[in-house]
């Protein structure tokens, strides 16, 4: 049977603990030596036993390796400190630049509003006047451009409405002429057939005018035979008119 896995905890038995320390120490020193030879690495190993006894191994001199370690560690710490100081200083300079720029913009804004002008000289006032003239000219040009665009849009809408109005007018004229022609056709047809019943004129917006009949007594003076028949009928002239 193989060896079981050793539980990693403090060995309570002193003898067993001492034996394990000796074996593991020898193995660790052997591994350090192999690492230095195989990989050409500078290795320094320091071990203190529970009794305070020192065991060490070094591929070179242990003291030189320790000095190299200390110098490297302190240099790294100084580099980190220098980096943080440099970064802090850079942020401070950036903050100072932004603060100066902000104050300058505030002063310029107050000057444009006509405030704190007593501290300005003649040249500065002339420069401020030029800036105001330029801003006023640009604002006028922008306003004029917007007004022209609005006028063009209104003219475009006006032309569109005029076109729609013209089409509607032409359509009404065509419908009116067609209704008038139909009405005249009906009247001429009625006159040709000798229809005694009058045709009422149709409204202009009616597509097909319809003739209407007058119910009741009606006397027509254009036909002599109608008058003769009426006289012969005597009192029945109302019925004759109805039958007509």
TrEMBL record:
Coiled coil spans: 125-174
Keyword field contains Transcription: yes
A single BP term in Gene Ontology: regulation of transcription by RNA polymerase II
Main localisation: nucleus
InterPro entries: MADS-box/MEF2_TF, MEF2-like_N, TF_Kbox, TF_MADSbox, TF_MADSbox_sf
GO molecular function, one term: DNA-binding transcription factor activity, RNA polymerase II-specific
Gene3D superfamilies reported in the protein's UniProt record: Transcription factor, MADS-box
Record's keyword terms, sorted: Coiled coil, DNA-binding, Nucleus, Transcription, Transcription regulation
MADS-box domain ranges (all copies): 1-61
GO cellular component: nucleus
Ranges where the K-box domain occurs: 88-178
PROSITE patterns, alphabetized: K_BOX (PS51297), MADS_BOX_1 (PS00350), MADS_BOX_2 (PS50066)
Compartments, record wording: Nucleus
PANTHER family, per database record: SERUM RESPONSE FACTOR HOMOLOG (PTHR48019)
Protein's name according to its UniProt entry: (wild Malaysian banana) hypothetical protein
Protein's organism: Musa acuminata subsp. malaccensis
């Amino acid at each position: 049977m193989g060896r079981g896995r050793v539980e990693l905890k403090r060995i309570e038995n002193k003898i067993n603990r001492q034996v394990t320390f000796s074996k593991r120490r020898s193995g660790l020193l052997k591994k350090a030596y192999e690492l230095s030879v195989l990989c050409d690495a500078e290795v320094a190993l320091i071990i203190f036993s529970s009794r305070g006894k020192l065991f060490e191994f070094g591929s070179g001199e242990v003291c030189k390796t320790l000095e190299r370690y200390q110098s490297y560690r302190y240099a790294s710490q100084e580099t980190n400190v220098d980096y943080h100081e440099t970064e802090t200083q850079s942020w401070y300079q950036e903050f100072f630049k932004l603060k100066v720029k902000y104050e300058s913009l505030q002063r310029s804004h107050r000057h444009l509003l006509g405030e704190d002008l007593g501290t300005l000289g003649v040249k500065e006032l002339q420069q401020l006047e030029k800036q105001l003239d330029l801003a006023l000219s640009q604002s006028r040009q922008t306003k004029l451009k917007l007004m022209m665009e609005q006028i063009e849009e209104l003219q475009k809408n006006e032309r569109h409405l005029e076109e729609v109005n013209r089409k509607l007018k032409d359509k009404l004229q065509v419908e009116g002429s067609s209704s008038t022609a139909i009405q005249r056709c009906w009247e001429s047809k009625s006159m040709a057939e000798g229809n005694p019943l009058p045709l009422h004129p149709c409204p202009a917006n009616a597509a097909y005018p319809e003739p209407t009949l007058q119910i009741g007594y009606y006397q027509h003076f254009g036909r002599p035979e109608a008058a003769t028949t009426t006289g012969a009928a005597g009192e029945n002239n109302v019925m004759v008119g109805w039958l007509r």
